[in-house]
Structures are given as C-alpha cells and as structure tokens.
Automatic annotation (TrEMBL):
Belongs to the WD repeat rae1 family. GO terms for biological process: cell division; regulation of mitotic spindle organization. Gene3D superfamilies: YVTN repeat-like/Quinoprotein amine dehydrogenase. This is Rae1 protein homolog. One of its GO terms (molecular function) is RNA binding. It is found in: Cytoplasm, Cytoskeleton, Spindle pole; Nucleus.
Amino acid sequence: MSLFGTTSGFGTSGTSMFGSATTDNHNPMKDIEVTSSPDDSIGCLSFSPPTLPGNFLIAGSWANDVRCWEVQDSGQTIPKAQQMHTGPVLDVCWSDDGSKVFTASCDKTAKMWDLSSNQAIQIAQHDAPVKTIHWIKAPNYSCVMTGSWDKTLKFWDTRSSNPMMVLQLPERCYCADVIYPMAVVATAERGLIVYQLENQPSEFRRIESPLKHQHRCVAIFKDKQNKPTGFALGSIEGRVAIHYINPPNPAKDNFTFKCHRSNGTNTSAPQDIYAVNGIAFHPVHGTLATVGSDGRFSFWDKDARTKLKTSEQLDQPISACCFNHNGNIFAYASSYDWSKDSHVSLGRSPSPPCKGKLQDFLKWLWEFSTAFGQNPAHRKHSASVSHYGLLCSWAQKHRDMNFIIPRKKITFSCVMQPKS
C-alpha cells in the first residue's frame, strides 16, 4: 500500500489539489522552489524521519492548512495531500515511524493525520491556541506533547480524549523542542523550563533566561555520543544563546551571539534588529542554521563559535526552516511575519492587502499592542507571539473581510555541507 493510500490521486502530472502555483521571481540564490506553496504565511516545516523511504515535507500555514510534498532526488516537489484546521496551523511534527503527522492550531486543537488513509482526527484540546506539538517515543510509553497559550503542557495518548498528564506552565508556551529524554519549553516573560521524559515526564530544572528579550524559537543539540546535552534559544532581539544543561564550566561554555542585524556586529552605526524565527541543527555535523525577519538564513559552528555562511537577502522574512534526516536538504519558508508592522508590509505587498476596513484593523492592532507592551512605534522588532495571537483573534472575528497578505513560498537549498 502506498504511504498515501491507493486512491488519493495527489501529485499527478499537470494538476494539483492546491490550485495553480504562484510565481515569485525574487529568488536571489536560485534555490529550488516548492510548487503550490500555501496562500498565507508559513509558520512551520518538518521533514519526514529516516524510517520513511524518501523525503517528504510537511508545512503548516495561516491559511489553516497542512500540506505534504514528496521531494525527489532531482529537487522536484510533488504535492501529495493536505488537511485543514479551522484556525492557523502553528506547529507540525512526525511520528517516529513516519506513518502519521501531528498538527497544532489556533483553533485550540491538535490533530493526528494518518497518511495511509489520508484521514485526520482530533487528539487534543486546549483552552487557547496550541503553539507547539511533539511526538515522544520512550521505551515504556508513546505520546504527543502539546504546549498552549493556556499555560499548560499536556501529554496525550492518541487513543484517548483525555490527557495522560497536565503540567502547569508559569506563562504561555511560545516554543519547545523534544529529543528524548529531554524537552525544553520557553514561555512568555522569558520563562525557560527543562523536562526529563524518562519513566514519565517531570520538571527537571527552571533556568534563568540568558536572553533579555522575548523568546521566539528553541532547538536541542546533541553531544558526540548522540545524546541531548543542551539547546539553542533565539529571541526577537537578533540574538541566540547556546546553553548546556550540565556544563563543566558554565561561565565559559554557555554564551550568546548576535545575528540577523542590518550591520552585522558593527555597533558604532545604527542597526535594524530582527527576530530569530527559527533554529535547526544539522543532523550529521551538529552545526546550526538560523533564519530571521531580515530575510536571511545563516549557518554557524557553535563549537568554533564562528559563522560559516550567510545567504543573500530575500524580499520577505524567513519564517521557518528544517533539515532533512541526513542533512543534505535545507528547507526554508519565505513569509511575511508582521515584524515591520502592517503599514510597512501592506505598502510593499504584491497582492491586494485587505478587503475590508483596514483602518479599523490598524487601530485595533495599535490598541492591543500597547496593552501588551508591544507598541509598534517603540520597537522595530515588534513581531511577537502576542501579535500573532492578536492577529488570529482579529481574523476569527472578521473572516468576511478576506484579509490577504503576500504570497508565500518554500525553498530548498539542496547542497548543504556546512562543515567538513
């Protein structure tokens, strides 16, 4: 049986269930563009695990959909299937055997997508949007971990509608990562918690954040024995922290570095500072990639503490990234992320920016931004998770206005050897 069943008919030549592909000529590095990208901002990407033959890419978007492509050795991408939520999709992940995909959404639910039957069922429920989702495969249990803006971390047996366990968070969950037996969760108000997953999940340690501004992304890295040993944490202030859980010399081993800034590390001239939207570690070399609202991706060697390469600048922010299982494909998504506020973006939009009362929306965004301490006039790097929540709430209230932001794309850099 085919991974996607025998009657799906997706990916046939000349047609696509996603409609016609959009053309975006601004691809400065001439990387391979994925066909039939989503019609709204792409918030998350994930490649299939090594247990699955070939390479399949999953993307979740603010168009409420989750799409899957097969990535062939030639670089050609074939749309295979899609599923829908009733709200923007904020995170996706795979099961360890590659048979299922798990999705988290602003509709306050998480779903399990069985790829062989192309059916999706709800497996989790929260009281607020679900920001993160991860599959945990332990020797004595398997479950899905969801983190939400309702300040809870829940663990789910996919066969039950009730969570196996609920852990309270100090604040809203903004980002998380899992590599068994470790989980790291970063929350609003710069909260940072490490969990151990052996036997059953439990809090291991709360860490004082090494960053001074809001957390945006986190990724766990491994040691030479292939065991999780620390994490990289990115913030909205163009900075990444490398933090080991049990370092021999914390003052020496843990450090932060600047990135995604208009003038590099030159502090004598005014700088535009951009959010770090995603971090991914190379599965073979252990180097890391960062992507930011400046429209660039960079590769770094954390051990040598050096930058390996920076891309040319795209015309939009890069909102997400990931490596495939053997590290020879790097995927990144180009999407507007509201980091320059609505009035800046809409003036440059190639698509009709809004059908409705745009002035009402801008006034609404201003009032709520001020209430959350995220006044756009005060910060150039003001695109925060709070803004995303506000935008989602506004979109749910004003669906009839058909608010549109620029066309999005996913791009591959297919030859990636960051470290010899």
